[in-house]
Amino acid sequence: MGVGLTVLAGCGEDSQPSQTEPPIQVEPTFCEHDVDLTSSYAFDAVGIHYEIPAGKTPTVPGGTSVAFDWVGMACTGTDANGADIARSPAGFRYRLLPLETTWRSLAPSVMSVTYPAAQLDNEAYRFEVAAINAREAFGPIVVREFEWNAPPETQFSQFVFPGETESQSVFFAAGEQGLPIEEYEPVRSGDTLSVTAQGVSLWALPTGNDPDGEPGDDGIAAMQVRLLDGPGLWEDVTVGQPFAKDNIYTEEGQDGYILTARAVDKYGRADATPDTVLFFVNRAPRFRVQGVVGGQPFSQSPAPGDVLSLKSLPSSTELEARFLGFDPDALNASRQLLEFSYRFAKYPGPDGKPSDKSYFSDWQAGNPTTGAWETTLSIEDGQREFLAGDFELLVRVRENRSSSLERLGRRVTEQRIPFRIE
Ligand SMILES: [Ca+2]
Ligand SMILES: [Ca+2]
Questions:
Q1: pLDDT at 33 over 80
Q2: Distance 146 CA to ligand 1 centre (A)
Q3: Separation between Cα atoms, residue 204 and residue 186, nearest integer Å
Q4: pLDDT (tens digit per residue) in 248-282
Q5: Ligand 2: distance of its center to the CA of 285 in Å?
Q6: Ligand number, closest to the Cα atom of 400
Q7: What is the pLDDT at residue 13?
Q8: How far is the CA of 360 from the centre of ligand 2 (A)?
Q9: Buried b / exposed e along 262-286 (16+ C-beta atoms within 10 A)
Q10: Could you identify which of 269, 296, 344, 419 might form a hypothetical disulfide with 122, taking C-beta atoms 3.0 to 4.6 angstroms apart as the criterion?
Q11: Is-cis flag, bond preceding 231, omega within 30?
């Protein structure tokens, strides 16, 4: 025989070590240990259990503690002689994200962990546990996920009012304050509410329920309502009481209102999807293309699609025009107090190409009695002649307010008028 080395890994007769040479030492192997998570559950003060199954993210009730039990599985490595050897876990590593961001160590004899309710909050959690071998190598990580404390749900209570077939939840009254609720009218999301000098009164009853609540206890600790015309703060209202507000106006430049309510449960968790109703106050003025002014028929000029004659113009730089506006709120029907402004968005330029250089004119008062505006229009302050061709005129009508009524806002409506001059 030559060099008398014998490899020890095999087990056949041929590989028996010789009597005279010592066995060759090999590096032992350390296998990975599985963890068998035997139970994962939440439990409340009277010990009622809520399972946390694998592959799901259940919501466990607010106020519960959460516990995990597991066993570490033995695995087969080899010893220094290369022989198979059963190894037990050298310990465990676990963490509960996001509460614990680093791994916690446990001795091999400790195979459970409990998180008291006081440590938990309104969050989604992820529990991870693994066994380690003697070399501190992790076996497969076992995961359970859960959310602690279901959020409450909020809605404005629905009522069916006389004359209404469908139930409504938010109501308004324009004008007189202190009316009985039966005389309020329903607000549908997206409505524009008519307005009076007293603004608008609003009434709604927000209610909430918490999935974690128990019989006799709806679990709602607070109710918050917000009436937004922009970013705003939540306002606490008494649970079970309606939210009511008078004198709601539309301020200058303001768009709509968003009425929102959210319930908050006793662990401080708020409904993430509050009930919401969008509405506007003060209907914008409108144009009347046909009407009656001072007992006489009235027709807007120019009206969309009109074809005018160049010869009919009073001068080469002037166009006679008349418009009629009205405010559907009839805040003060005898004094419409409307203002008008215009610009030519498109007109034939001197080079024959369409031009669009003009800006909106200053606001000009309409007739305070009739809401009519009879005027002469010009292009670029009379610097341009009217030429034959296609025009596009934009006319705006705006509510004019005396200083005592300016809280009502001044809503604007724009009319686009394509017309032609031949
Ligand atoms: Ca809850
Ligand atoms: Ca109005």
A1: yes
A2: 14
A3: 10
A4: 887 766 677 889 999 999 899 999 888 988 888 88
A5: 6
A6: 2
A7: 43
A8: 22
A9: bbbbbbebbbeebbbbbbbbbbbbe
A10: 269
A11: no
Evaluate if residue 291 carries a pLDDT over 80: yes
Q: Is the pLDDT of residue 4 over 50?
A: no
Task: Tell me the helices (H) and strands (E) count for the chain, helix number first.
Answer: 0, 33
AA identity, residue 390: D
Asked if 153-281 and 286-421 have one fold, the answer is: yes
3-state DSSP call for residue 197? coil
pLDDT, tens only, 299-328: 999 999 999 999 999 999 999 999 999 888
Going by pLDDT thresholds of 50, 70 and 90, the confidence category of residue 176 is confident
CB neighbours of 297 closer than 8 A, spacing ≥ 6?
Answer: 290, 291
Q: Report CA(328)–ligand 2 centroid distance (Å).
A: 6
Hunting for tokens 């600790």 — which residue is that?
221
30-34, 176-180, 280-284 — which one is most confidently predicted on average? 30-34
CATH number of 20-148: 2.60.40.10
Expressed in angstroms and rounded, the spacing between residue 270 Cα and the centre of ligand 1 is 8
Diameter of the chain measured on Cα atoms: 133
Assigned architecture for domain 153-281: Sandwich (2.60)
Q: What is the pLDDT of residue 160?
A: 66
Could you tell me the pLDDT band of residue 5, with boundaries at 50, 70 and 90?
very low
3-state secondary structure 258-310: EEEEEEEECCCCECCCCEEEEEEECCCCEECCEEEECCEEEECECCCCCEECH
Domain 286-421 has CATH 2.60.40: yes
Any idea which ligand is nearest the CA of 192? 2
Domain ranges of the chain: 20-148, 153-281, 286-421
pTM of this prediction? 0.62
- Identify the bridge partners of residue 125 per DSSP, sorted by sequence position: 146
Ligand positioned closest to the Cα atom of 267? 1
**How many residues can be counted in the chain?**
422
Share the mean pLDDT of the chain: 86
End-to-end CA distance of the chain: 119
